[in-house]
Design goal:
Elements lengths: L15 E3 L5 E3 L36 H13 L3 E8 L7 E8 L7 H11 L1 H4 L4 E7 L4
Parallel strand pairs: 4-5
Antiparallel strand pairs: 1-2, 3-4
């Protein structure tokens, strides 16, 4: 049963769509640019893009955590634990840093994080995001 003011849709082949006024408007197909293409242009290339191709790039993800860990060991020699974890799913854009160090004793959390940010000032430039967790070793 159709709602008041609307005609029932009828078969799909009539190529019309209902309107609230009860008038029918002809169905207009999508422009050619929006329709999927058939043929060779629609199939993806079967060969991978070579590294030397324009627009290709290489990412050395494992180097970033190692570099950050090395810098943190140099800046916090009394640290009892340093852990740098890639939390971006492997692309190297976001890291989580856990540091337990005696240098953080008697410092507020914001000061501890500022110390870490200052130590990693160069490495942070290539990162999208960074989570910092600092703590003092239990006595």
């Amino acid at each position: 049963m159709a709602a008041a003011g609307l005609r029932s849709r009828g078969p799909v082949s009539d190529r019309t769509t209902p309107r609230p006024s009860g008038l029918l408007r002809p169905f207009l197909p999508a422009p050619a640019a929006l329709r999927p293409r058939a043929g060779p242009a629609a199939t993806p290339p079967s060969l991978p893009i070579p590294p030397s191709a324009p627009g290709a790039f290489r990412v050395s993800v494992p180097a970033a955590p190692r570099a950050a860990r090395r810098v943190l060991r140099e800046k916090f020699p009394r640290a009892s634990a340093i852990r740098v974890v890639d939390i971006s799913g492997g692309c190297g854009a976001m890291y989580e840093i856990h540091i337990e160090s005696e240098e953080f004793r008697e410092k507020r959390t914001v000061q501890q994080h500022q110390m870490v940010n200052q130590a990693l000032s160069e490495e942070i430039k290539s990162m999208h995001g960074l989570r910092i967790f600092t703590s003092v070793p239990k006595s």
